[in-house]
Amino acid sequence: MSVFSTEEIAAIRGRFPILSRIVNGKPLAYLDSAASSQVPEQVIEAVARFQRTTRANVHRGVHRLSQEATEVHEGLRDRIQRLLGASRREEIVFVRGTTEAINLVAWTFGRQKLNAGDVVLAGELEHHANLVPWQIVAAERGARVEKIPALDDGTLDFDAYEKLLDSLPVRIVAIQQVSNALGTIHPVERIVAAAKRRGVATLVDGAQSVPHMRVDVQALGCDFLAFSGHKMYGPTGLGFLYGRYELLESMPPWQGGGDMIDKVSFSGTTFHEPPWRFEAGTPHYEAPSGMNAALDFLEEIGIERIAAREHELLEYAQTRLREIEGLRILGSAPHKAGVVSFVLEGVHHYDAGMFLDQMGIAVRTGHHCAQPAMERYGVTGTIRASFAVFNTEDEIDRLVAGVVRLQKVLR
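Given the sequence above, the corresponding C-alpha cells read:
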C-alpha cells in the first residue's frame, strides 16, 4: 500500500499551480526537484501578502511595518532552530543559499584553522559548492583539499576515509549528506563521529537532505550544516547555516555593512554577536514569509511521510528504467534519496534532455555541478530525474516511454 492514497496525491498536486502547466503541448512532468522544488500556492500567497501588507526593512525601523517584518524574519529563525534541533536560535545564520553558507564557513572558520600543509577532506561526489570554496581558501593558506574516494556503488570508502584522517594533517571534513548527482545517502553521523574522535571540524552540506528527511544537528554532531530554502518548497534567495555557537562566536565577520555592527566610528568598529555578525546589509526580507509557509506545508504533510513517498518513487523509477536496454543507472548504494541518474548508450545527455522536454518532461542533464563525480564514473554527464512528494508513477511511466521513444528515433 502506498504512503498516500491517489486522492491525497491529487490533492497535494492541486496545491502547486505550476503543475497544471502545458509545456510543448504536453502536461508538465516536473522531475527536477533536486535542482529546485516547486512551490505550493500557500507560499506564493504568503510572499504576495507580505508585499501587499507588510513590506518594510527589518531590524531598523520603529514603525509598525518594520516591526512586523522583523517578527516574521526572527520568527523563522526560531522555526529553523526547532527544525534542526539546534540548541539555541543564535546558531542559525540567514544566508542566500547553501553556496553562500559554505563560503561563509570557508572564508572565516577555514581561514582561521588552515595553515601551510593542512588538509581539508571532501567527498569525491561533492558538488562544486562544497569543493571550490575550500580549494580557494586552502590555496590562500598553503593548505590543500584531498578527496574521500567513492566506491563503484556510489558510497564513500569509509576505510579509506579513516586512513586519510590518521595519515594526513586534516583540519576540516566537508561532506554532503545526500549526493545531488547519484542520490547516495552518506552515513554522515558515522563520518562526523570519526572526525570528532580526532579533533577534526565538520561541515555537512544538507542541500539535498534537509528537504527530504529528518535532520537533527545534535544527533549528527556536526559543527556546521548548510542548506537552501528553494529546494524545500520555499522561495529562492534564502538559505541557512547552522553553526555551533562557540565556533560562530570565535569567527570574524566575512562581510561588512549595515546591521552587523555594534558601534562604528572612524577609529574602529565593533560587531554584533552571532548570528547577526554574519548578516550584513538588507536581507531578502520577503522570503521568510514564504519560507514560513513552506515549513507549514512540510509539517502538515510530514517529513517522514514525504521521505517514504519519495523512496516509493525512487524504487518504482529504478525498476522501470532498468527494463530499458542500453540504459545504465549510476549509483546503487543501499541507501538513496529520490534521485536516479542514468546514461543511455549512444545518446548524449544534452540531446536526451532536449527530447524529453519536447514531451513536457523536465529532467536535469549534464554534470550537475559535480564534475569530479562524473569523472569518477567515466561520464561527462547524466540524465537525472529527482522526485518530490507531488510526483506520480504516471510521470515516471512518461519518462520511461520518452526514453524508449528517444532510442527508437535515434536508431
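The first strand starts at residue 22 and ends at 23. Try to locate this feature in the C-alpha cell string yourself.
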